[in-house]
Write a structure and sequence with these properties.
With 178 residues, the protein is mostly beta strands. It folds into two domains: 9-103, Jelly Rolls; 106-177, Sandwich (Jelly Rolls), CATH 2.60.120.10. It is 0% helix and 56% strand. The protein has no helices and 17 strands. It has strands spanning 9-16, 28-35, 39-40, 47-55, 59-62, 68-71, 78-81, 87-90, 95-103, 106-113, 118-121, 126-133, 135-139, 143-146, 150-154, 159-163, 169-177. A five-stranded antiparallel sheet has the order 1-2-9-4-7, with no helix packed on it. Strands 3-8-5-6 form a four-stranded antiparallel sheet, with no helix packed on it. Strand 13 (135-139) and strand 14 form a beta hairpin. The chain is globular and about 45 Å long. The two termini are 29 Å apart.
């Protein structure tokens, strides 16, 4: 789908409510974006954002009076207010990022798991697990995640994530009401 500012394309992984749009507003949204050129990021007033570098050398973000952030370390979550106007400058070619955006009526916690052999995910009203690479088993849900699979669980309680392949990486997102 097109970026809110028209400057590129994003793969939307999940949005709540399911039929929400960027124009109608939403409670939360997960997406991946391929950043192919320098330019502005879309502003999301009344939202909170977390961004992680997935691929590429990274990007320098200038928050127009709110400081700068270099996203050059893969899978290092960076949280910022959605109303901050950001301009990105690629470090050395295109990159891909992962985004979590929540309305200010909701909380978000983003954690990167490298289960060797297992990790525990605390209970949350909504738990989302995205498999960046590798393969993992999630219990008690009884689900297996392969690369780029996304699992959404509502009120599932504490989860255990067990690596089924070497170098497995999972992004765990906990979302709840404020």
């Amino acid at each position: 789908m097109p970026w809110r500012n028209g400057g590129g394309l994003t793969t939307q992984l999940a949005i709540e409510p399911e039929n929400a749009t960027l124009e109608s507003g939403f409670h939360w949204r997960l997406s991946m974006a391929d950043v192919r050129m320098d330019g502005p990021f879309s502003a999301f007033p009344d939202y909170e954002r977390t961004i992680l570098l997935l691929k590429g050398k990274g990007i320098d973000l200038d928050f127009n009076g709110h400081g700068r952030k270099r996203l050059a370390t893969p899978l290092d979550p960076f949280h910022f207010p959605g109303e901050w106007h950001a301009t990105g400058e690629l470090l050395d070619g295109p990159c891909r990022d992962f985004n979590v955006i929540t309305h200010k009526g909701f909380t978000q916690q983003v954690t990167v798991l490298r289960p060797e052999p297992r990790s525990v995910v605390p209970a949350a009203p909504t738990s989302l697990l995205f498999c960046v690479q590798g393969k993992a088993c999630v219990t008690p849900a009884g689900k297996v995640l392969n690369q780029h699979d996304l699992l959404r669980l509502e009120g599932a309680g504490v989860l255990e994530v067990t690596a089924e392949a070497p170098d497995t990486v999972i992004i765990a997102i906990a979302i709840g009401p404020e």
